[in-house]
Amino acid sequence: MKIQKPNISNQISIEQITKCCNDDIKHFAEHFFQLEFTWLHNAYGAFKDFDKYLILVYLINNTLKTYKEHFYNLSFENFYKSESFEIEKISIIEIVKDLSMSKETVRRKINELNKSRVIIRNKKQILIINPFKSQKPINNIKELSKLITCISLKLKKIYGLPSYNDQYFLELIKKNYTRYWHTFLNFQLKYLFGVKKSFGSIANFFIFGSCVVNQSYNLKNAPQNASSNLLEPDNYIKLLTNYTKYRAQGLNPTTISELTGVPRASVIRKLKELSKDKFLLKNKQNLFTVITAKESPAAFKKLSNNFEKNQLLLRYCLKDLFNYMVV
User: Fold this and answer.
1) Quick one: CA torsion of 3, 73, 136, 220, rounded to 10 degrees?
2) Of residues 45, 34, 73, the one with CA closest to residue 132
3) Is residue 86 part of a domain?
4) pTM here?
5) Domain for residue 310, yes or no?
6) pLDDT average per 10 residues of sequence, the chain (327 residues)
7) Shortest CA distance to 11 belongs to which of 323, 325, 324, 233?
8) Count of domains in the chain?
9) Is 55 part of any domain?
10) Are the CB atoms for 295 and 278 separated by under 8 Å?
11) Which run of H or E residues covers position 289?
12) Domain coverage including residue 290
């Protein structure tokens, strides 16, 4: 029997992924923003509590890590057939350290999850009652597939590699769900830790993100001559912020509430915090847009640095996924 060996020389490099992203950063960023907004919307919809959701995702990802280490792979369908699954023993201290939360917060959220029977905890042993029966991340997988497809087309254009459509990647992720989703969740957790540190809370970032998605949509429909000099991420952020401020409308609190599902009163409170930190601007029509470099150089620099760091994390994630899927 002929044994097929992996072709190491054909591995896709981080440099190739980066070149593909920068070749059409506007289109790539648009898919990325939509992916993250979809993920955050799904996360908020589960418990109306991002910390609680993060703890649960962390526990699930630890389980997926164990599956991967033992070469155990479940499809999307088979993973959600189980009514529950057990995770390896883990302490509150481990969760506190890995999620950068206070001990009191982690203990309280774990108790709430236990009380609502999302998990069953017995000392260090935790049984997760499959929490995503009604919150399956199928929309997240669809958005991730679109993002991967965007890169796949560029790999074909620049390097002559085979390209695949989003349905191909969707089915492949579903078939190898526990393996591929572990890779994505590793990125997602690191990404959210970073934005939480920058914005004070994931809830603040969710509100901010709704304005970013709106602005990327405005830019998508902008005249072609407004899309020059897009080879560097920093230039894209400048274009994104300036275009909407001067040529398109922002969002009001009511619209943000409708988009996110967050109560309007909470949205208004978060908008005040984001405006105080100079991440958002409010015009005379009570519409909010992302800060520009002109209004607040310090806040804009922080946003740009955050974007670049997150993009690097994302590109390594995409590199790994491509090398799993097509090499």
Assistant:
1) -40
2) 45
3) no
4) 0.89
5) yes
6) 53 95 89 94 92 91 90 91 78 89 93 88 75 74 96 94 94 96 96 92 96 88 59 70 75 96 97 96 90 91 91 96 87
7) 323
8) 1
9) no
10) yes
11) strand 288-290
12) 10-50+133-325
